[in-house]
Amino acid sequence: MNRSSNRFLLVCIAISLLFTAIGAQMVRIQNLPGAQRILDIAENYMGINQMVYPERGMILDAKGRLLAGNETVYEVGLDLPSIRQAETVATVVSTVLGLDYNDVMKTIRNEDGKLKYAVLNNFVDKDKVAQFEALIEEYKTRDLQDGETRPDLTGLIITPYNKRSYPENALASNVLGFYSFKDRTNGLGYFGVEETYNDLLAGTPKQVYMSYDPQKIQNLEEIPPGATVVLTIDREIQSMAERILDQAVETQEAKSGTIIISNPEDGSIMAMATTPRLDPNQYWTYGDIFPGATPFNRAVSQTYETGSVFKVLTLAAALDAGAIEYDSVFNDTGEITVGGITVNNWNDGAWGPQTMTGCMQHSLNVCLTWMALQLRADRFYDYMRAFGLDRNTGIDLGSEAHWPMKVPGSANWTESDLATNSFGQGISNTPIQMITAISALANEGKMMAPHVVKAMIIDGKQYEVNPVVIGNPISAKTAEEVTRMLSVSLEEESSTALVDGYSVAGKTGTAEIPTPGGYLWGVYNLSFVGWGPVEDPKYMVYLWLEAPEIGMWASEVMAPIFSQVVDELVVMLNLPPDIPVREDEWAGGW
């Protein structure tokens, strides 16, 4: 072997030893305690981990029409260190956004040096963004005169994002609730469906690695949107209910009003209208519209003494228990004493011998008290519990409330409570409690869980909400008897609640309003509950006007409102007439 070969061999050995040492050093470095932190820092220079929030799910009505969705709006801000022409930027943004020029300049100067980025406006619409884009393009292509400087909007940052949108504005807003942003990407639902189903609507956010390499951005994982919620609310029925309610509140100068329209067969709510209502597109006005303790949705959150509409439950309980018979006769003397108090009828009159139907037709407090006494206290309150009056209904809306029911054994219950409770005084309930309980009379004794959600669409699959029986407080026979008695009662008094061509059953309610100092004089809550057709009920309507200043009696005020609602409702539900139209009510045909 010559000297050149020896040198070559030594060089090869040296290089091999060098690479071996480098490899060993690399392995050693990677296993140092701080090595992972070094790798993480290096990774951060290549991209960033970011929480990505999915698009919020839509809310649709029963026929698939959009009630809540999302629209693209823009945040306009300033990257302060990169601004080259402060006056130009301030002039443009103050003109387009309607801001004060001096305030914008003060922001740009950033005198304390704390800001790097300043938000000028959120929820900017696409028309204003188009103005910015047009100006930016114009400045790029403008022909300059000698010595003129090209206008520069560098530092103006326009960022698109999704905003919750309610295309029908205030329609069904007490059912929907509203969505309030915490920041551009995240927020929280308040009240109604937005609150109850917030987690489903929001979807599942994911931590995603965002590469700074534009080629790798195309490979980002797709984040599925939140669930779409389909309601039982029908937009047209809801709109009708709100129109009639608003008119009634205005005409009667009432403090507030509520209408619920449900299907007693499955508990679905077709419409739920209350006043006041909020446009959820402007949810920040909440405090102005709902001052103090005014509930967002009085149908589920406000209890009140319902008065004589409660009598249908007392009648049903007494009949079902066998405490009275369908054809029992009560001799009304105009007063009855229970637990040291004397109960009188609404007009202080004595009505003489009355059938049970007559007691309901004339809404006799004395007769209903007698029914409750025949039933006895323990069984009376057992039935009221069976009707669900001691608890929430469980409706899928936020902020449901109920008033604790006094029963024998409660510290403040007295025997006189049995008398007053029998006709809806001294016991408070929400409208949703009442329509849920009374729906058993229209559904063969079965009480269905009230609900406003019909289905949910998750990852492209639709999941239906099945009807749920939550109680069977009375028999089908009792339900049929009470329905017929209330139907006959309306017919015999030629009530203004009647609807030509359609059989209905129902009951009015006029109730005094309690205060800490006693009941108000001359101020009442007026209610009505009704359903039909009598043979096979497909709808139930519950009405409440709080403290109207014009009308005083539910028979005069609420009965015609019920008739107006049903007259339009049967057309919307495509229900055929089930009784002949009275000849004196039509002339010459349909």
Question: Briefly, what is this?
Answer:
The protein has 20 helices and 24 strands. The chain is α+β, with helices and mostly antiparallel strands and 590 residues long.
Q: pLDDT average, as an integer?
A: 88
What percent strand? 15-25%
By DSSP (H or I, 4+ residues per run), the number of helices equals: 20
Q: Which fold name fills CATH's third level, the topology of the domain at 235-585?
A: Beta-lactamase
CATH class of the domain at 235-585: Alpha Beta
What is the name of the CATH architecture of the domain at 235-585? 3-Layer(aba) Sandwich
Q: Largest beta sheet, briefly?
A: 7 strands, mixed
Structural class of the secondary structure composition? alpha+beta
The gross shape turns out to be elongated
CATH superfamily of the domain at 235-585: DD-peptidase/beta-lactamase superfamily
Low-confidence spans: 582-590
Number of DSSP strands? 24
Our Rg estimate from Cα atoms comes to 35 Å
Helicity, in percent? 25-40%
Distance between the termini: 123 Å
Molecular structure report:
- This protein is of the alpha+beta class.
- Among the domains are: 58 residues, no CATH class; 351 residues, Beta-lactamase.
- Helix content is 35%, strand content 24%.
- The strands form eight sheets. Strands 2, 3, 4, 5, 9, 19 and 20 form a seven-stranded mixed beta sheet that branches. Strands 11-10-24-23-22 form a five-stranded antiparallel beta sheet, sandwiched between helices. Strands 1-8 form a two-stranded antiparallel sheet.
- Strand 2 and strand 3 form a beta hairpin.
- Helix 13 crosses helix 19.
- It is elongated.
